[in-house]
Design brief:
- With 279 residues, this protein is an alpha/beta fold.
- It has 2 domains: 128 residues, Rossmann fold, CATH 3.40.50; 139 residues, LpxI C-terminal catalytic domain (Cytidine Deaminase, domain 2, 3-Layer(aba) Sandwich), CATH 3.40.140.80.
- The protein contains 9 helices and 13 strands.
- A 6-stranded mixed beta sheet has the order 6-13-11-9-7-8, with helices on both faces.
- The two termini are 36 Å apart.
- The relative contact order is 0.13.
Length: 279
């Protein structure tokens, strides 16, 4: 890689863009931050940056071209309820008109079209895992605790369910307990889904059981919308009374790995990393 290459990080909310920026800088990239809606972590202010509404697509592209930046990465949380239609700019407006369901599809479809749009403007779109490959894990059990035979049955059932909801572009997660689907992630996101599971488990006063499964959809473009877990996920899995987690290898970001491992051991939870291909 040319050590003088510039990388524009289109950063949403949360700590992950900070981690990616730090790793990118260490590996030789000159980082420029586009703070989407001005909501990115203040720790990113130490890099050259602009704060701009995500709907100002044409202006963002113009600024990056003026700076001769071709490599871009989009990471962090951005609200889906923003008014995309209010100020799209000509370029994205034309794309939206050509694809009448542009705003009505699921996250994977929307993100895929954004990537295509950026590539049509001669940008090279990178995934966080390409710039910071230590954020994804290889196959194996990360924790001291391993799934038992009851967990394995839930995992097998859960894998078939999570693949189906991925094909339908519904969500990335499912929770299965005693071969029964307790929850499927939809528009509310992972955290709120786990809050629902907590209510269900507490209502029935269940002992610790069940598995949380997070999987990168087959139709998903991991360069712009890679699934993520972190300490908050582990905490919520514990509070929901589950036994552990299963994620797909190489395609789910694990943020703050050291703290994740500490919480797994502290709560006696397992984290299993598997290949979901042909499973």
């Amino acid at each position: 890689m040319d050590k003088n290459k510039q990388l524009a990080i289109l950063a949403g909310r949360g700590p992950l863009p900070v981690s990616v920026a730090e790793i990118a800088k260490k590996t030789g990239w000159k980082v420029f931050v586009v703070s989407l809606n001005g909501e990115s972590d203040k720790a990113l202010d130490k890099y050259p940056n602009i704060k701009i509404n995500i709907t100002k697509v044409d202006k963002i592209i113009s600024i990056l071209k003026e700076k001769s930046i071709k490599d871009v990465l989009m990471i962090g949380y951005v609200d889906r309820h923003i008014n995309w239609k209010k100020d799209l700019g000509l370029g994205l407006l034309i794309l939206a008109l050509r694809n009448r369901d542009f705003f009505q599809r699921g996250d994977a479809s929307l993100c895929s079209r954004i990537v295509s749009f950026l590539e049509s403007k001669d940008f090279v779109v990178h995934g966080a895992h390409e710039i910071a490959n230590e954020l994804v894990l290889k196959i194996g059990t990360i924790s001291k605790y391993k799934p038992n035979k009851h967990n394995e049955k839930d995992i097998i059932h859960g894998l078939s369910v999570v693949k189906m909801i991925g094909i339908l572009d519904i969500g990335q997660c499912v929770v299965v307990d005693n071969n029964r689907v307790l929850a499927i992630e939809a528009a509310e996101g992972t955290d709120l889904m786990l809050d629902r599971v907590k209510i269900i488990k507490n209502k029935h006063k269940s002992i610790k059981s069940g598995v949380f499964i997070k999987y990168s959809q087959e139709i998903q473009d991991n360069r712009i919308d890679m699934p993520t877990i972190g300490p908050v996920t582990i905490q919520k899995v514990y509070e929901a009374g589950l036994s552990g987690l299963v994620i797909s290898s190489g395609s789910v970001i694990v943020h703050d790995y050291i703290e994740v491992c500490r919480l797994l051991d502290n709560y006696n939870l397992f984290l299993d990393v598997r290949s979901f291909v042909n499973s």
